[in-house]
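Postdoc handover notes: sequence design on the structure in folder B. Input tokens:
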């Protein structure tokens, strides 16, 4: 009887959603993909025909942003609608606990509340398990993605340059042999007492890094010839293959689309590309003019094309909203000698290619190149193709999709997320009146053309001067000239607002500046 009522409720929910003409939603999230890494945004050395097609059939934003210039904080804020610095969220090490509180509304939780099937397939890097309790990689791993709103979860649990180098399906490691249990440690000595497959220690045996060498930091356990951050023992049968990772993700996404084509779905696909270690499938080697970094981008573009083709094959293309973006700006040498070539005279350019376009900086940095990213929305049934100059941010997804789905948010839910659905759909030209973004050590406040930069709370180093910065992006888009001394009245005004915005427990949705 219970199953019968659940089925009837599912049918009723589906009919209501389709009556409202609400779309399926697929969020495709690049990793370290810069503004200038996509053809539609000016790249000439990396062919991205599928993403370019997505842009030509959708709305391309020239002022689209993530809320942080590093991966974990950016993902956290996008999925929760809360700025990561409020929870002191930073880049996670191997085996870190989950940073998203399970009692918070999330983006997948919002879609689930609206009756959608929710699937996560890709790179997580938001932690697994509970703080203070060591994860059992040979048993159940929770909380994780399924505890914050996903019905289906297939994850690269941290990131591809860190151990453990295994997939987690649901709550368990995929293909794990119980006779070869997984153990993780902070150093080589942590693993000496454990049984199971031992992998080379790159510090002691650098020759074991046969795929390519580490340039810095990535020289602990060597898995498939690649040095990783952190130490791992065991789990040989469960190890992922770097070169087939994109294929694995794409096949599972296609399966969800095919199986759920009769009901509304939300799919979050955060790719591992083009994060290090860049190890694209051999069929993509040499497909760009920029070595492995460019080839990994070609592979990512292929994945986008496969998703678009699958939607078309299943008659879902017109009423599916695809949102394409990235977690932060570009980086070249991020720990491996993988062939990226950066000139000392211009460390933003690799053989003439600037991954951040005209914007200054990239990953880890507070400048525009660190957080102004590709941002495309395609929904043929409703969004008119074109180019938008509206200011949009990923942190506003929760409030904006709540508006689309007809769900009212409480004051406690996603307090930093504001409703800018009109801008995302191309029905409103301005977008967000201001942006708050973080880097490793700073927070920036953008209002109109003005951008004010100050140190992140707790990051002021004792005895060292702190450089405050002010830029006018209307005539200095590359942030070359700090005009702090020239406009004291602007500084005073923006500083007051900056203090208001970063205050503890502030609700940006209700705040009137």
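Designed sequence:
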């Amino acid at each position: 009887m219970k199953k019968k009522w659940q089925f009837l409720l599912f049918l009723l929910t589906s009919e209501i959603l389709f009556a409202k003409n609400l779309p399926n939603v697929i969020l495709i999230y690049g990793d370290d993909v810069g503004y200038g890494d996509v053809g539609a945004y000016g790249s000439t050395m990396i062919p991205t025909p599928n993403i370019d097609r997505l842009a030509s059939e959708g709305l391309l934003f020239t002022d689209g942003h993530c809320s942080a210039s590093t991966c974990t904080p950016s993902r956290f804020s996008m999925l929760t609608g809360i700025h990561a610095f409020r929870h002191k969220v930073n880049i996670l090490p191997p085996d870190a606990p989950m940073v998203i509180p399970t009692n918070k509304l999330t983006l997948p939780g919002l879609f689930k509340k609206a009756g959608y099937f929710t699937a996560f397939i890709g790179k997580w890097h938001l932690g697994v398990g509970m703080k203070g309790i060591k994860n059992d990689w040979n048993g159940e791993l929770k909380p994780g993605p399924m505890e914050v709103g996903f019905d289906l979860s297939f994850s690269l649990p941290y990131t591809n340059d860190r151990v453990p180098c295994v997939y987690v399906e649901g709550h368990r490691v995929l293909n794990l042999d119980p006779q070869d249990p997984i153990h993780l440690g902070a150093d080589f000595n942590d693993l000496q007492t454990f049984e199971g497959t031992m992998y080379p220690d790159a510090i002691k045996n650098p020759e074991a890094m046969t795929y390519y060498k580490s340039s810095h930091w990535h020289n602990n356990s060597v898995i498939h010839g690649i040095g990783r951050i952190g130490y791992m023992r065991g789990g040989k049968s469960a190890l992922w293959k770097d070169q087939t990772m994109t294929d694995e993700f794409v096949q599972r996404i296609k399966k969800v689309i095919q199986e759920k084509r009769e009901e509304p779905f939300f799919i979050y696909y955060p790719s591992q590309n083009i994060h290090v270690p860049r190890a694209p499938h051999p069929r993509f080697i040499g497909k760009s003019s920029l070595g492995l970094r460019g080839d990994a981008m070609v592979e990512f573009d292929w994945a986008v094309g496969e998703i678009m083709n699958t939607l078309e094959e299943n008659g879902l293309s017109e009423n599916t909203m695809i949102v394409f973006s990235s977690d932060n700006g570009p980086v070249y040498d991020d720990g491996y000698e993988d062939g990226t070539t950066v000139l000392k005279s211009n460390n933003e350019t690799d053989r003439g290619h600037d991954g951040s376009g005209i914007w200054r900086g990239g990953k880890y940095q507070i400048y525009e190149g660190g957080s102004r990213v590709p941002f495309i929305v395609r929904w043929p049934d409703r969004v008119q193709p074109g180019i938008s100059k509206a200011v949009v941010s990923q942190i506003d997804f929760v409030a904006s999709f709540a508006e689309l789905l007809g769900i009212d948010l409480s004051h406690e839910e996603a307090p930093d997320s504001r409703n800018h659905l009109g801008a995302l759909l191309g029905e409103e030209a301005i977008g967000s009146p201001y942006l708050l973004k973080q880097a490793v050590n700073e927070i920036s406040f953008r209002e109109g053309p003005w951008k004010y930069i100050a140190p992140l709370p707790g990051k002021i180093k004792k005895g060292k001067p702190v450089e405050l910065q002010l830029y006018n992006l209307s005539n200095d888009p590359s942030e070359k000239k700090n005009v702090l001394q020239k406009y004291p009245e602007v500084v005073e005004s923006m500083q007051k607002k900056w203090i208001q915005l970063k205050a503890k427990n502030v609700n940006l949705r209700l705040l009137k500046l």
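Context for whoever picks this up: The radius of gyration is 22 Å. Don't rerun without checking with the PI first.
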